[in-house]
Amino acid sequence: MTVYAVTRFNFPTPKKSSTPPPSLLSKSLNGCRAVASGVGSCAGKLLSGIKYGTLSLPLDILAGMCAEKIGVLPSGPELTASTCPASAFSITCSSQDAPILQELQGNQAFIDAISEQMHRVITKKDLFKLCVIWAPVSEELLCRGLIQDVLLQRLPSYLLKKTLPGKDTLLQSRVYQIARVVLAAALFSGAHLIWKGAVPDTTALAQAITSIFSSVVFGAIKESSLGILGSIGAHAIQNLIALSPVLLSKT
Questions:
Q1: Which pLDDT value is given to residue 113?
Q2: 216/59 Cα distance (integer angstroms)
Q3: How much is the pTM?
Q4: What are the boundaries of each domain within the chain?
């Protein structure tokens, strides 16, 4: 007769966790911490962009001085508001050089009345909201977000992955990165020429020349870890500095 030995295995029973499940209060606190961390990160990028935008402002001034030196731009007040077209429009509306008033030189009373009405329509508060808030946000989302990021980076990368797998790494090179920054800057600069007619031609040309340098800075900030928030901050502070003579004036 064969005897089989039966071995009894005692499997350890899993211990119950002594940690209680997170309560609704702890979940809420964790969510608040995550939100606060995200807000702090966004604010840090925005402030860093403001810092770099301020430090790079001499590039705009240098570009205007060089353009004036070689005769591309005449010497005059056109460069004072070259960064923000709306501020230039506000300044030139009260000037006899404004295109809208050139045909009315013989009627000074009518010119003065029109100038007064324009200053009432375009207030300092309106200029601040337009140049320091709406323009930087909309222009950066369009030029750096849509053109530089989506059309010149994400879309070509997607198409290369589909057609030539493995070749999309070419779009990560430093050369292509610089190329898309410069191309987006050129498009941004050319867009400032649409103000011709609303402001003197020299003012529109000054805006186009100086903005290409600042736009390269905005694009470089966008390519860094600061992202689109950094470029918005840099754009906003440059517009604010350009607009400060108008905002601080007593009229």
A1: 57
A2: 10
A3: 0.73
A4: 56-248
